[in-house]
Amino acid sequence: MNISNKIIFICLPMAVLPLLLLGLVFFVQVEDTVSDSVLSERANLLDQMSDQITRTRGTVEANSNLFAGSKLLQKYLTIDDSWERYSIFLPSVISLIQSYQQAYPDYCEFRILLPDGSEDCRVTTTAIPNAKENEAGSSFFIQASKEAGELYSTFSLSPNTQELSYLLSRKMMLVNEGAVEKLHPPELRDFLLSR
């Protein structure tokens, strides 16, 4: 072997190995930087989603106060005579709910459930099939019934559309029509649900 071949076999690895090591170090640093960047973006997106959910929940709860504060709805819920309730007041309540849905198009379904879980009234923006008319055994209704406060909300899979949606239930605690408030405390009349 001549001297030039020996120099090449000795010098070439001495030049190439440091370059390979330098490339490996840069690769690891770039990979760490990209990984940190991806994790940071994920954290930012999760924070944004959390903020959006908090804002949406606040808006839905405020709108629930508006809906529940309707004198027509409250009157309807306190009527015990079924003929008067369904023949006279129900069409007006449906019209009122439809006007809410026009003003707030995100609410695709409103339901009024009796304390036993059976459906009293349902209004939808589109022809959504009704999978259940009695919610007494559903986990959502059981949790809403047990809730100490007036409001209960959760994300759930709609049995009607099989889509994830935000569901809010408000206990309608009202005094029976004609009762003196001091003598009769408000009682659970119905649940107002919006999806």
CATH class of the largest domain: Alpha Beta
What's the number of structural domains? Answer: 2
Mean pLDDT: 87
Distinct helical segment count? 4
**Number of E-state strands:** 5
CATH architecture of the largest domain: 2-Layer Sandwich
Largest β-sheet summary: 5 strands, antiparallel
For this structure, the CATH topology of the largest domain is: Beta-Lactamase
CATH superfamily of the largest domain: PAS domain
Measured distance between first and last alpha carbons: 85 Å
Beta-strand residue fraction: 15-25%
H-E string = HHHEEHEEE
Q: Roughly what percent helix?
A: 40-55%
Uncertain residue ranges: none
Strand order of the largest sheet: 2-1-5-4-3
Structural class based on helices, strands and sheet pairing: alpha+beta
Overall geometric form: rod-shaped
Q: In angstroms, what is the radius of gyration?
A: 31 Å
**Assembly state:** single chain
Describe the 3D structure.
The chain crosses the membrane at residues 7-28. The protein is of the alpha+beta class. It folds into two domains: 1-68; 69-194, PAS domain (Beta-Lactamase, 2-Layer Sandwich). The protein has four helices and five strands; from the N terminus they run H-H-H-E-E-H-E-E-E. Strands 2-1-5-4-3 form a five-stranded antiparallel beta sheet, with helices on both faces. Helix 2 (71-78) runs antiparallel to helix 3 (82-103). The mean pLDDT is 87.
